[in-house]
Input
Amino acid sequence: METLKVIKIGGNVIDNPAALETFLKDFASIPGAKILVHGGGAIASATLKSMGIEPKMIDGRRVTDAETLKVVTMVYAGLINKNIVAALQKYGCNAAGLTGADCNAIVSRKRPATPIDYGFVGDVERVNADAFAMFLAAGVTPVVCAINHDGKGTLLNTNADTVASAVAAAMSKSYETQLVMCFEKDGVLYDKDDPESVIAAIDAPLFETLKADGRVAAGMLPKLSNAFDAIKSGVKSVVIKNSAKILEEASGTTIK
Amino acid sequence: METLKVIKIGGNVIDNPAALETFLKDFASIPGAKILVHGGGAIASATLKSMGIEPKMIDGRRVTDAETLKVVTMVYAGLINKNIVAALQKYGCNAAGLTGADCNAIVSRKRPATPIDYGFVGDVERVNADAFAMFLAAGVTPVVCAINHDGKGTLLNTNADTVASAVAAAMSKSYETQLVMCFEKDGVLYDKDDPESVIAAIDAPLFETLKADGRVAAGMLPKLSNAFDAIKSGVKSVVIKNSAKILEEASGTTIK
Output
């Protein structure tokens, strides 16, 4: 089985032009089949504000009304996605930017309006592995933003972490797939105040212990749940690591 | 040789939601290999204004400074392109939205800053026919916006008419290619004030006569020059027609 890396980057890289450039140069040099999934960062909120629209958040999640959907589509699928693709081309990586609508790659379902109406927000329903396989077979690296569609003509804003794990899960039927979740720290820290306390590997029992201890940063828990879900869906391994260290195979926290 | 239609739509369709929806429904039903190229319309200027940026034009052409490039990338490659793709998916046409950066499909050269500095504006240098052929072979319809790249990491804003004819010319090596340029009239009018005076066919000598006469609308002349260039580059036929009549094979003006 051919190996595949699905690598996800978020706002900490997207919002820092120098870090993004370094990351993309590193990413371009990774050999073999790979897929990049990117989040949005702060540019969407800044763009909304420049247009006089106040970003709405509930419990840290963006409420995507019709105007906000237009702006996140512009920023994620246009500005960020196409600049990443152009930069990867410069570094010799033949890339193609995708939303879930392109090639019908990812179909989402609009989240129910109760108890909280998040607007045009989707939950991933189905990943079309054949669409991604077409690009990979041609030596093209898909660059995926977290805008999907419902198959009925409506675009939906989706969480980039769950897009990355859904893509990795779908591809694991045909590829030995590693999911790499990048962020600003070197891995999952045993003590959130000690940047060197990286836990090399976490299995299910240790995850239960860490949850009970309350030592792991709260924001890390959904990422870890997501990682275990990916493993259950057939992904070979999940690594949580620093986006500045993607070429260092030994770095980060491996989930198994 | 398999046949291919390269169909170009501009602002008159993009700016009219009802006309766009009808066009996309019609387009989705066209059998066989096809590529859609779309322009930008008035949304980019409206978005610039909503962000407090005054659109700059010289002789009817947009000056694309760094901020304007960001906005046209957002609007053309994000908002317009992805909504077209989602609508085509709804109508059963498996589409994929592309800039020239995606799959390195279209490489442009930044236009020299003299005599007029149009900023980040490109002229098409090379179309990668293999990139389009990959999609067509998989039954996927490319939807192309007029944002290209220079291969060195910079996106460039390009004229959609010339993108359409360059794509048609490149594809004509492997496909019997028809280029369809859609606009708001039924074809090239012999008398610009008489909407029924459509000229069914124009060859090179008639084009010279029409130019000398001065009866054809001035805005039509670059479209016709562009069409003759496409024919010289191997495109089988060019049809200039109403975007509301793409399913009527006999309508419009054929260039030969």
Observations:
- Chain A has one domain: 3-255.
- Chain A touches chain B at residues 47, 50-52, 70, 73-79, 81-83, 85-87, 89-90, 94-99, 101-104, 134, 138, 140, 147, 149, 151-155 (CB under 8 Å).
- The helical segments of chain A are 11-14, 17-29, 43-50, 66-90, 129-137, 160-171, 204-213, 220-232.
